[in-house]
Amino acid sequence: MSKIEFTLNGKNVVYDGDPLRRLVDVLREGFQLTGTKEGCGEGECGACSVLKNGKLVTSCIIPVGSVGGDEIVTIEGLRETEQGKCIIDSFAEGGAVQCGFCIPGMVMASQALLLTNPHPTEDDIRVAISGNLCRCTGYDLIVESILLASRKGEGLW
Amino acid sequence: MVNTCYIPKTLEEALVLRKEKKAVPLAGGTDLMVAYKRGVGITPIFPFPVMIVTHLDELKGIRVEEDGTVVIGALTTSVEIARDERVPYFVRMAASKMGAVSLRNTATIGGNIGNSSPKGDLPQPLILLDATVVLQSIDKKREMTVDEFIIKAKKNRLNDDEIITEIRIPKPDYTYGYFRKIGTRKANAISKLTLSAIMKVESGVIKDFRASSGAAGPKVARSREVEKLLIGKLVFDLPSLVEDFVDAWDGVISPHAMPEFRRATTKNMLRYFLLECAKLPKSGIIE
Description:
The structure holds 2 protein chains of 2 kinds. Chain A is α+β, with helices and mostly antiparallel strands. Chain A contains 6 helices and 5 strands. Chain A folds into 2 domains: 2-75, Ubiquitin-like (UB roll); 79-152, [2Fe-2S]-binding domain (DNA polymerase, domain 1). Helix content of chain A is 37%, strand content 16%. In chain A, helix 3 crosses helix 6 (140-152). Chain A starts with a strand and ends in a 5-residue tail after the last helix. By secondary structure, chain B is of the alpha+beta class. Chain B has 2 domains: 5-169, Uridine Diphospho-n-acetylenolpyruvylglucosamine Reductase, domain 3 (2-Layer Sandwich); 176-285, Enolase-like, domain 1, CATH 3.30.390. Helix content of chain B is 31%, strand content 23%. In chain B, helix 10 (238-250) runs antiparallel to helix 11 (259-278). Chains A and B meet through helix 1 and strand 4 of A and helix 5 of B.
């Protein structure tokens, strides 16, 4: 057992327990942040995506012991920001959501993209969400919604 | 069952833990966390002591030495390798095609070599380029080629008191180069088959030729003996040498699953590269 200190959605938090517990379980069960979903459990589907120091990572294959001192942002943190609101509104407006299970991860992947590339092309977007699987939409409306977010959010990133 | 887990703050601390507790380094976790996962909400249980080394800054970063050798810290991630223009093309390509963005943000070069999977993306170009791996213990440091280090699938020469600290890639010297990864989809794919090759040509004579085949046997396949079949030959003669060469290379690989596909496709890729070289195009990468 050890104490892991990190920043979660802007707040300093301390986790006390097995450092090999998966970050996704710490988020969902420890901190009740159930916006982060678990799909495959092996880093393939992207449903559990969160940002670690601004970079997209899959929280199902990250032990909480590896995030000491890091900044973790989940969908609950992102949706409180102007950037997050813009992406989420664009997803709603663009009809990007069907069942919704992949969407928190998709929004995190969109944010990770827009942080480094505020004016992505369609190809840039498809590459950026290539680790996020969606079984409903066929991706086209998600891609269009991210393009919409980059236009509507001009200057936000 | 309870895990034994350490989080060393320095390399020295990690080396002591490695020697005294035989703790296994966990860098990104992209292999180990999946191998020992037990399901939703359940903490993975490791049958050995683990040390989380993700934050050891001493093992991160890329530098270039005076003779052009590129030195990559073992904890450097695939994203960092893929975007660094100083890293040889083949290694950058392999890093950029590994998994998806999120995996590349997490997976490290040391982990990819230490995992020693024949489908691992990075060993293949590293073996092509005669890259070496530096293994450090609290008492000593040793270095060997990645080719020597990896024995077969999941087996390597890492001693239980050693940590992979860096990977050293000699400056490649080639006229033509080739890299291809075949997966079942454009992104987020485990390699079905990979090949890279380089050829150095001077005044129409092949001065050096190397190839390495990934995911085509229990480890990355290279054969200096078969490569020699082309060295010293004229580029002009390649069309007449190609078939004998690809047949000889067929004896180098030993695919277990889908052997017909892997053998035929390896031949096709090599044939393509060699016949393109025979046209003596402008030097560079042949796509």
